[in-house]
C-alpha cells in the first residue's frame, strides 16, 4: 500500500513505520522533523495548516514516481500519529489546539482526497486515570472500550475530541476510520533502562494502569488495521496482554483497586483489555518485558 503517515518521527511512529516498511508498504512520513530511516519518504509539513495537509495528500512520494506517473498516485491509507504527545510539554491550550485542529485537518484532507482507510492515534489517557489530579481509579476492571472517557486534562480532552471528530467524518463518508487508544509506548532499549525500577516500585506504573505496548507491536496493530476492511468507525485499546510489573494481578488489585468491580483475571493479565483488537483484528503482541530483562523475576 501507499501510506501517508503523520508523526512518524516520534517515539511510536518511527518503530511503526519500520514495521510497515518491512511489510512492503511505501510510507511517506509527514512531520516537522524528517525520519532518518532507509526506505521512508519524508515530507516536512505542519498538520495545523489545512492547505499543507491537502497538498501532501496529492503529492509525489519521491522522484522515482515521476517516471511511471504523470500525476501522483493516490494514497491508499492514512495513519495519523502526529500530536503533542503528552501533557506538560506545551501550554495546555496550545496542546489542545494543535491536537484537535491537526486531527481535523488530516482526516478532512484524507477523505477529500478519496482515502477510504484512516487509522488515528488516540490514547489510554481518555479514560481519565493517567493525568488525573490525585488518584482516580477505573470504574471496573479490566478497562475495555466501553469504559467511560472522563478526562480532566487538555491532552486527554484533545484525544476525546479527536475521536468524536473521526466518528463524525466516518458517519458522513462511510470510510473505515479506526482509532487506537494506545497505552504507554515502550521502545526496545527501555526494558533494561526502566523496568527494573518498575519491579522495585509498582507505584510508578499506577497512572498507566500497569499496562504498556511495545513500539514494534504497535506497528503490528497498524498492519492489522490496514488488513481489516469494512468495520466503519471503531475504537481499539492497544496494549500487551500482560501487565508491566512482577506482582500477580490479584495482589495488584488488593493493593491498588480495592472496591473496584473486577472479573476473574489471569495471574499476569493486563488491566487494559485488548480483547476487542484480538477478536476483530487478530492482534497478537509478540514482545513481552520478560523477554528483555536479565532477571525477569517471574511470578
Automatic annotation (TrEMBL):
Stored Gene3D superfamilies: NAD(P)-binding Rossmann-like Domain
InterPro entries according to UniProt: Epimerase_deHydtase (IPR001509), NAD(P)-bd_dom_sf (IPR036291)
Ranges of residues in domain NAD-dependent epimerase/dehydratase: 3-193
One Pfam match: Epimerase
PANTHER family named among the record's database cross-references: NUCLEOSIDE-DIPHOSPHATE-SUGAR EPIMERASE, PUTATIVE-RELATED
Name this polypeptide is given: NAD(P)-dependent oxidoreductase
Amino acid at each position: 500500500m501507499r501510506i501517508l503517515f503523520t508523526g512518524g518521527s516520534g517515539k511510536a511512529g518511527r518503530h511503526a513505520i519500520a514495521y510497515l516498511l518491512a511489510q512492503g508498504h511505501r510510507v511517506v512520513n509527514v512531520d516537522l522533523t524528517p525520519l532518518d530511516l532507509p526506505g521512508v519518504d519524508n515530507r516536512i509539513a505542519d498538520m495545523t495548516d489545512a492547505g499543507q495537509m491537502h497538498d501532501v495528500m496529492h503529492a509525489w512520494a519521491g522522484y522515482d514516481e515521476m517516471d511511471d506517473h504523470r500525476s501522483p498516485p493516490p494514497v491508499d491509507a492514512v495513519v495519523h500519529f502526529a500530536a503533542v504527545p503528552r501533557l506538560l510539554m506545551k501550554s495546555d491550550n496550545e496542546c489542545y489546539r494543535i491536537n484537535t485542529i491537526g486531527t481535523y485537518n488530516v482526516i478532512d484532507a484524507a477523505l477529500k482526497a478519496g482515502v477510504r482507510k484512516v487509522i488515528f492515534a488516540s490514547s489510554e489517557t481518555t479514560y481519565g486515570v493517567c493525568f488525573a489530579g490525585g488518584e482516580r481509579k477505573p470504574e471496573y476492571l479490566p478497562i475495555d472500550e466501553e469504559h467511560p472517557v472522563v478526562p480532566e486534562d487538555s491532552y486527554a480532552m484533545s484525544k476525546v475530541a479527536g475521536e468524536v471528530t473521526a466518528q463524525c467524518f466516518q458517519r458522513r463518508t462511510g470510510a473505515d476510520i479506526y482509532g487506537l487508544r494506545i497505552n504507554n509506548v515502550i521502545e526496545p532499549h527501555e526494558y533494561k533502562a526502566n523496568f527494573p525500577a518498575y519491579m522495585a516500585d509498582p507505584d510508578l506504573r499506577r497512572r498507566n494502569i500497569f499496562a504498556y505496548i511495545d513500539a514494534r507491536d504497535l506497528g503490528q496493530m497498524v498492519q492489522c488495521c490496514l488488513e481489516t476492511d469494512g468495520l466503519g468507525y471503531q475504537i481499539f485499546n492497544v496494549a500487551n496482554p500482560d501487565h508491566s510489573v512482577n506482582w500477580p494481578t490479584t495482589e495488584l488489585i488488593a493493593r491498588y483497586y480495592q472496591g473496584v468491580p473486577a472479573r476473574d483475571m489471569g495471574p499476569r493479565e493486563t488491566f487494559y483489555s485488548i480483547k476487542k483488537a484480538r477478536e476483530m483484528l487478530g492482534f497478537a503482541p509478540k514482545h513481552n518485558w520478560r523477554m528483555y530483562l536479565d532477571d525477569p523475576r517471574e511470578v
